[in-house]
């Protein structure tokens, strides 16, 4: 910016007049740059929030979490309370060790009953994080003391806002949780999620609250819960040394506990990692990290194409003014002065585009949280989303850097060209056939980036098509799921069983209902229950850990899902009386895996790891295969346990209703049916199964849609750039074309003369883009399904599409020169 000085204000005024004089061109450049900057800023905001942003806690780099990789389960960070206690009392590597356990429970709020997620936290939970409240106070070690008059509870910001209307007088008010009185003592600040990135519990309670919140007597004490552990490392202690000490304490504690209870400690021999918690724990990060990085690369490539086009437009505009520049040079202006003037004009124009892009991203970024899929934990419970997508300083810094780079990339080519104006040539004529290497270099770059984007879009779109073409095994088109938890209304197990029976009977009588049944777990929710199975008399090795999925169902469930009994029979109410061996229904994959080539009916098997399986279960029937957690997952071996409608059990369950017509039409009648039976107890989740299937493909659908949109946009920009560049080149060569045609050249000769080199440049750029895509193909392996990451068909189709559309743009640009009479061209001077 060496031109900033006495002439800057004058240059700025001239630039503003030039922008007003060419309002159409100026508006196009501003819109293109605004879209490019907005897309990059918005996507980076999501990348920063999920992958890069440090936790908003005190000294996040000093926090660590213990993690073990468990076969068929993935990373696991929960440990028994005994391990937490051992680390707190005996570990010398950590200054503090804290943790929390998760419980789902019912809560009576000012707006009615609600099913909530509560975290039972250690007394130092908020101290180790350095969290301060928005209202009231945080929990502390004194709140764990038994026998205190009241049990305190801290509300999350989303729960306070949605259930208490952001009432600042909430502190000190009573709150009934699982039919027990609590007292609200604090409200957290917005996006204070503890160590989690995008989710937050509704409530946080002290350890002693576990005894009144647990619905299962086996877990009615915090000492019986599993805690997610995290700690702060002491200064001077290496993570490796701290991990070794933690593993030694964990192994000794679990061995002692196994000796006391007689149960094997499955987690003892799992490798233990001590991982940094600087960026927190995220559910979405493992699923979206690869896709987000590819998406970031895509929007960056699109911005490069936009900058190339904006640069080409400014280049053409400055070339059209070379007569003006020549006159100014003849009158004594210097090349540096002309460059300063044109650079000011270009930077002002591109700066307007960048500012518009930042304003657009400020509006669009908060909307991203609304399009995220439902987030669920291992129990398939829906979690509260609390993802901070505000434009933080790093995001704003990157956006400003993008603005500067985009402005310079768009403005410098025109400024450099203006500095090299040929005074004599410009004064004599504006018609020249000199090569415009810079313009054609921009065409090569655009063609390469467009091919790269289209190849990726083709691969991701084909993946989505393959997944959508999979039949899940059930009738997704005509099923609605209703999730209910009778404990939200204070129901006992006996009352819950009675309500379940009455509800099912009433729903089956509704017009339009073909079948209905219950299950303990919904389908296509990304999670489920697993166990370890082997035929009776055999031993399941460690490699078979958690090899089978489970689901508890009522009579009528298979009819409701559209599953077929292929061998044996379905459940009957009398089957509940058979205890040893317990009759079960399994799917085809289970039968083939554990009893290959045999008739599975009547076969016995048991559960357990590293033990000889007892004849605990007997196969009653075999049902057709169906997807369980997602479409990507192969159909797992599945056991359908029997939980008849009349069974007196509490907890939540999922009602599946299969209809004769459109499933949406049955939602309101079923809702009214429940209201008649229990007005104070709502369904807390209602979905069509088709919507559940679509939600399971959220990441693939968004990536395919965005990559396709970017590819189409890139194609349009490339065509615009090729047409503008070639039309400008043709305009320069009008005199040469006129002379050639006057001397007898044919139209085909002229067409080949003008289009051969541009198409060669485009083809070179397309091949360069394809080569880049091949080099990047390893990044696509985790995203594709049913396709190789290196897909020659997608690459060839992209090259063909870029070349064909470029040829069409070339023909349109050249046609004007072929239709101009040679005499008219030769008379122009």
Automatic annotation (TrEMBL):
What topology in the membrane does the UniProt record assign?
Multi-pass membrane protein
Q: Which GO terms describe its molecular function?
A: transmembrane transporter activity
Q: Which Pfam families match?
A: FtsX (PF02687), MacB_PCD (PF12704)
The places in or outside the cell where this protein is found are: Cell membrane
Primary localization: membrane
Q: Where are the transmembrane segments?
A: 21-51, 292-316, 346-369, 395-416, 437-460, 702-729, 750-775, 795-818
Q: Does the keyword Transmembrane apply?
A: yes
- GO (cellular component) term, any one: plasma membrane
Which residue ranges does the record assign to the ABC3 transporter permease C-terminal domain? Answer: 300-417, 709-822
Provide this UniProt record's keywords sorted from A to Z.
Answer: Cell membrane, Membrane, Transmembrane, Transmembrane helix
Report the residue ranges that make up the MacB-like periplasmic core domain in this protein. Answer: 26-245, 446-625
Checking PANTHER family in the record gives: ABC-TYPE MACROLIDE FAMILY EXPORT SYSTEM PERMEASE COMPONENT 2 (PTHR30572:SF18), MEMBRANE COMPONENT OF TRANSPORTER-RELATED (PTHR30572)
NCBIfam families attached here?
ADOP (TIGR03434)
Protein name as it appears in the record? ABC transporter permease
Q: What is the lineage of its organism?
A: Bacteria, Pseudomonadati, Acidobacteriota, Terriglobia, Bryobacterales
């Amino acid at each position: 910016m060496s031109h900033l000085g006495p002439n800057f204000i004058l240059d700025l005024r001239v630039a503003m007049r030039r922008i007003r004089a060419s309002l159409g061109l100026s508006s196009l450049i501003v819109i293109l740059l605004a879209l490019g900057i907005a897309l990059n800023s918005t996507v980076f905001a999501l990348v920063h929030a999920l992958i890069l942003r440090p936790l908003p806690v005190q000294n996040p780099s000093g926090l660590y979490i213990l993690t073990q990789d468990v076969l068929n389960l993935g990373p696991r960070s929960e440990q028994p309370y005994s391990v937490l206690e051992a680390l707190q009392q005996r570990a010398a590597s950590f200054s503090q060790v804290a943790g929390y356990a998760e419980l789902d429970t019912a809560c009576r709020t000012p707006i009615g009953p609600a099913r909530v997620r509560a975290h039972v936290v250690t007394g130092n939970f908020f101290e180790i994080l350095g969290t301060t409240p928005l209202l009231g106070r945080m929990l502390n070690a004194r709140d764990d003391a038994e026998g205190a008059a009241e049990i305190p509870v801290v509300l999350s910001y989303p729960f306070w806002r949605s259930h208490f209307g952001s009432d600042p007088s909430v502190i000190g008010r009573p709150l009934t949780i699982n039919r027990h009185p609590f007292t609200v003592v604090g409200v957290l600040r917005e996006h204070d999620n503890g160590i989690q990135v995008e989710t937050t519990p509704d409530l946080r309670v002290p350890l002693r609250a576990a005894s009144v919140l647990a619905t299962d007597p086996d877990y009615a004490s915090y000492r019986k819960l599993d805690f997610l552990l995290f700690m702060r490392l002491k200064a001077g202690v290496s993570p490796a040394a701290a991990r070794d000490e933690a593993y030694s304490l964990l192994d000794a504690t679990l061995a002692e506990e196994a000796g006391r209870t007689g149960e094997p400690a499955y987690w003892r021999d799992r490798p233990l990692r001590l991982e940094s918690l600087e960026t927190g724990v995220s559910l979405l990060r493992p699923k979206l990290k690869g896709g987000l990085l590819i998406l970031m690369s895509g929007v960056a490539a699109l911005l490069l194409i936009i900058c190339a086009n904006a640069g080409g437009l400014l280049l053409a505009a400055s070339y059209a003014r070379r007569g003006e520049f020549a006159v100014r040079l003849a009158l004594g202006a210097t090349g540096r002065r002309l460059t300063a003037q044109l650079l000011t004009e270009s930077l002002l124009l591109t700066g307007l585009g960048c500012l518009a892009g930042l304003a657009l991203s400020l509006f669009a970024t908060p909307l991203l949280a609304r399009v995220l899929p439902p987030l669920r934990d291992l129990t398939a419970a829906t979690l509260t989303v609390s993802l901070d997508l505000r434009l933080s300083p790093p995001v704003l810094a990157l956006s400003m850097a993008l603005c500067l780079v985009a402005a310079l990339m768009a403005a410098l080519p025109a400024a450099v060209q203006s500095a090299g104006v040929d005074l004599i040539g410009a004064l004599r004529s504006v018609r020249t056939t000199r090569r415009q290497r810079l313009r054609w270099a921009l065409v090569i770059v655009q063609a390469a980036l467009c091919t790269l984007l289209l190849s990726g879009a083709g691969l991701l779109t084909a993946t989505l098509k393959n997944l959508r073409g999979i039949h899940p095994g059930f009738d997704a088109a005509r099923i609605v799921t209703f999730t209910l938890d009778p404990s939200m209304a204070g129901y006992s197990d006996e009352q819950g069983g009675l309500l379940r029976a009455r509800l099912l009977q009433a729903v089956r009588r509704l017009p339009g209902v073909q079948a209905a049944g219950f299950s303990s777990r919904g389908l296509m929710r990304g999670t489920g229950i697993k166990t370890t199975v082997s035929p009776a008399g055999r031993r399941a090795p460690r490699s078979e850990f958690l090899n089978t999925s489970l689901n508890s169902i009522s009579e009528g469930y298979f009819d409701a899902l559209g599953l077929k009994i292929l061998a044996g029979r379905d459940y009957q109410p009398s089957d509940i009386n058979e205890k040893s061996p317990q009759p079960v229904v399994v799917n085809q994959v289970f039968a083939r895996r554990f009893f290959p080539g045999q008739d599975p009916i009547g076969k016995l098997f048991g559960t357990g790891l590293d033990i000889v399986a007892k004849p605990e279960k007997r196969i009653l029937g075999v049902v057709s295969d169906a997807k369980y957690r997602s479409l990507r997952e192969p159909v797992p071996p599945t056991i359908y346990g029997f939980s008849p409608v009349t069974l007196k059990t509490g907890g939540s369950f999922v009602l599946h209703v299969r209809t004769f017509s459109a499933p949406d039409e049955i939602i309101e009648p079923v809702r009214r049916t429940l209201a008649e039976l229990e007005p104070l107890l709502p369904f807390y989740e209602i979905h069509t199964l088709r919507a559940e299937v679509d939600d399971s493909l959220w990441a693939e659908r968004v990536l395919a849609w965005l990559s396709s949109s970017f590819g189409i946009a890139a194609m349009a920009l490339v065509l615009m750039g090729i047409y503008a560049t070639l039309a400008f080149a043709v305009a320069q060569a009008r005199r040469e074309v006129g002379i050639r045609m006057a001397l007898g050249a044919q139209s085909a000769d002229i067409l080949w003369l003008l289009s051969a080199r541009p198409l060669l440049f485009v083809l070179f750029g397309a091949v360069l883009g394809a080569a880049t895509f091949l080099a990047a193909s390893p990044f696509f392996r985790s995203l594709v399904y049913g396709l190789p990451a290196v897909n020659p068909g997608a690459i060839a189709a992209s090259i063909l599409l870029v070349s064909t559309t470029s040829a069409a743009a070339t023909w349109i640009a050249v046609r004007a020169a072929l239709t101009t009479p040679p005499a008219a061209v030769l008379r122009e001077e």
